[in-house]
Write a structure and sequence with these properties.
Blueprint lengths: L8 E8 L5 H12 L19 H6 L6 E7 L2 E7 L7 H8 L4 E7 L6 H12 L4 E6 L8 H12 L3 E3 L1 E4 L7 E4 L4 E6 L2 E5 L3 H19 L3 H8 L6 H13 L4 E5 L8 H11 L8 E5 L5 E4 L6 E10 L3 E10 L2 E2 L2 E5 L4 E5 L2 E5 L2 E5 L1 E2 L4 E5 L9 E3 L5 E2 L10 E7 L5 H14 L4 E5 L4 E6 L2 H15 L3 E4 L6 E4 L3 E9 L6 E11 L6 E5 L11 H11 L13 E9 L7 H18 L2 E15 L3 H10 L3 E7 L4 E9 L6 H9 L4 E11 L2 H16 L1
Helix pairs in contact: 1-9, 6-8, 10-11, 12-13
């Protein structure tokens, strides 16, 4: 692949709902451009961009994959992205590297959940969008109904620039509504023909609507058009470019990836209408001043690492979008995010898993380097003499948590090392240690996401792990008071053991924790043993009498006791305090408490009734609702954590993948009596085991 300057480079993310055909479209674009000499099907497990075993097995994309092509003396860096919600982080990262999005829509299914999610993310990233209607050769493919569907979801800005020539299995080419010509498939290309008579009126109508929409992007052209003046084809083209780049026009084109129809015209549209990479100004924060600046491709070197892959053989691969300056092979760059110098050995691009050497990554281009020591996803590489920082990539918070243990004893460190490597690769994986339950927890975007992480860990690092629902962090407390004595007396040749304490136990307000009060008078318990009594109580607080969970919100007052001048010791008083604690807990009406979380659920307004009904069935309390923009609503509820350990899966099923949620711990409440009995029985069975 030859070197290209930024004005000849386009960076495009291919996105869509899972099953709309993003990978098939990418494969067809690669084939049509001559980048590959054989077009494979997803079903065969041999496509260029779905090369990971997890993708081949499931026949779905899991990673955002780079796929550069050469077309019309230009380079287009395509990034094929996953269509399932569990892998939205890949889309988020890709959107920071590209200048436009190609949104693939199925001609039979229309706008689906993933389509809307991708559209929303592209809108947030301020990306121009081209809509590509794929599968025009399929039965029940209907361009007009898809147009109505798109406009009902995304507004009148959706503008057809092409019409299908032929329908369903007879789909054989494209009618260009801009140039008013038709193109019939011929081998790997097409023949230009006159528009057939049966399509002329339809095409003329669409052309007129296209002109009306295009001139709205330019005030001067619009005034002249309204005055009845004829606008030249070149001016209309310029208006279209302006409207598309400003995201006030969303062109709609069509294709069949399976039949290899319309793919050349898709690349033409990308080159003609979207931003050349260096025309897109970018924002950074100047490290020296702390102020945000807008820069262009002529500024000192600035680049963003938008993706990281861990390879057990090659090491860490860093995918880089260079916005200004260049990164050369055998050079040193400055990681402004970590304040470290990094040595760049070689630079290359990748087409799927195939490396293609490069001498340098120029402004506007996307490239890859390996074995950077400190650099992670989201880091900024810049000129050390003019350091800048890009805004961090905002990845969604993980919503699904499992407890993870090594399948084989002795491999705990191997599992943790593998997870750390995988966290480098995927910022939406979070691994934590729960100090109370002593469990290692892995959190991800959903059950599929975690399942694939486990498969990847086994394949790449040779270790296996088991997953289970995390232990709920229950707590124990008391609702009554107790006055008890704890005496420890033991005689065995020589020194014996003697400790005697009398305590009062009483509840404290929620959130107070533990309070120890010393009310000893007259030396009933010598001063040197009182810290041992407190320590004994503190240790006992870690394991309550009901189910062994930590005890909270209790005041213990040491009121009396006795000692032996020879047999008393710190250990004896610790033991006595333990005896007193257990007796007091049993007398003071102990109860089990469970954690309640504040849950914030966002979904379409029409789904809110189902969501609220589901939360009520989970013992939730609805705290409030509010209407948001774009027909969305948000509900806030308090729900026991025990009811929402699978909520990521439940909500996806309830809202067809459209719902999102955040959760935050709020407080503890008493567990209902019948549920408490089961939890206590389970805890005792677990301890016995």
């Amino acid at each position: 692949m030859k070197a290209y300057t930024g004005d000849k480079i386009r960076n495009v993310a291919i996105v869509g709902h899972g099953g709309a055909g993003t990978t098939s479209v990418t494969e067809a674009l690669l084939y049509r451009s001559g980048a590959i000499d054989r077009m494979c099907k997803v079903e065969d497990g041999a496509t260029t961009t779905d090369f990971e075993p997890e993708e081949i097995k499931r026949k779905v994309s899991v990673n955002a994959t780079l796929a550069p092509v050469e077309w019309r003396d230009s380079k287009i860096n395509f990034i094929d992205t996953p269509g399932f919600a569990d892998f939205v982080a890949e889309v988020k990262g890709a959107f920071r590297a590209v200048d436009s999005a190609l949104i693939v829509v199925s001609a039979t299914a229309g706008v689906q959940v993933g389509t809307e999610q991708c559209w929303k993310l592209a809108e947030e990233a301020h990306l121009p969008r081209i809509i590509l209607v794929n599968k025009m050769d399929r039965e029940n493919a209907d361009f007009d109904s898809i147009l109505d569907n798109l406009r009902s979801k995304f507004g009148k800005k959706v503008l057809p620039l092409e019409l299908p020539l032929g329908k369903e299995e007879n789909f054989e080419g494209i009618i260009d509504c801009v140039r008013m010509k038709a193109y019939r498939k011929n081998g790997n290309g097409s023949d230009e023909i006159e528009i057939p008579d049966e399509y002329k009126d339809y095409a003329a109508d669409m052309h007129e609507k296209m002109v009306e929409a295009a001139v709205e992007a330019d005030d001067d052209c619009m005034m002249r058009y309204l005055d009845g003046e004829t606008i030249s084809d070149e001016e209309i083209r310029k208006c279209l470019i302006k409207g598309i780049r400003q995201a006030i026009i969303f062109p709609m084109i069509c294709c069949s990836a399976a039949k290899n129809i319309g793919l050349g015209r898709t690349m033409n549209a990308i080159i003609d209408y979207t931003y050349p990479a260096i025309l897109n100004d970018f924002k950074v924060t100047d490290v020296a001043t702390g102020k945000e600046e807008t820069r262009d491709a002529g500024a000192p070197m600035a680049a963003l690492v938008f993706k990281t892959m861990s390879d057990p053989f090659v090491g860490r691969l860093s995918f880089i979008r260079v916005f200004s300056g260049s990164i050369k092979a055998d050079s040193t760059v400055y990681n402004a995010s970590r304040e470290k110098d990094e040595r760049v050995a070689s630079v290359f691009t990748m087409r799927g898993k195939t490396q293609i050497p490069m001498k340098e990554i120029t402004a506007g281009d996307i490239g890859v380097t390996s074995k950077l020591q400190f650099t992670a996803t989201g880091d900024t590489l810049s000129d050390k003499n003019d350091p800048v920082l890009f805004a961090p990539i905002e990845f969604p918070l993980p919503m699904y948590t499992r407890a993870i243990t090594a399948k084989k004893k002795g491999e705990e460190d191997k599992v943790m090392n593998a997870l750390n490597r995988l966290m480098d690769e995927d910022p939406t994986i979070i691994v934590t240690r729960n100090p109370v339950t002593k469990e290692t927890l892995i959190s991800g975007m959903g059950d599929q996401h975690i399942e694939i992480i486990m498969e990847r860990m086994k394949r790449k690092f040779g270790v296996e792990a088991d997953l289970k629902a995390p232990i709920i962090e229950y707590r124990e407390t008391i609702r009554g008071k107790a006055h008890v004595q704890g005496k420890h007396k033991k005689q065995s040749g020589g020194h014996g053991q003697y400790g005697d304490v009398v305590i009062d136990m009483e509840p404290l307000p929620p959130g107070s924790g533990f309070e120890f009060v010393d009310k000893i008078f007259g030396g009933a318990v010598p001063r040197q043993y009182i810290p041992a009594v407190e320590k004994g109580m503190t240790e006992c607080m870690q394991h309550g009498v009901l189910a062994g969970y930590p005890v909270v919100d209790v005041r213990i007052t040491l009121v009396d006791g006795s000692y032996h001048p020879v047999d008393s010791s710190e250990m004896a008083f610790k033991t006595a305090s333990s005896i007193a604690f257990k007796k007091a807990m049993e007398e003071a009406k102990p109860v089990l408490m469970e954690p309640y979380y504040n849950l914030y659920v966002t979904c379409e307004e029409g789904m809110m009734g189902d969501v609220i009904g589901d939360l009520n069935s989970k013992r939730g309390r609805i705290l409030g609702m509010q209407s948001l923009d774009d027909g969305l609503s948000r509900v806030e509820a308090q729900v026991p954590y025990a009811e929402i350990t699978e909520y990521a899966v439940d909500l996806r099923a309830l809202t067809q993948g459209m719902g999102t949620f955040e959760m935050k711990f709020d407080h503890y409440e008493d567990v209902p009596a019948k549920m408490a009995e089961k939890i206590i029985a389970d805890a005792k069975a677990r301890d016995e085991k």
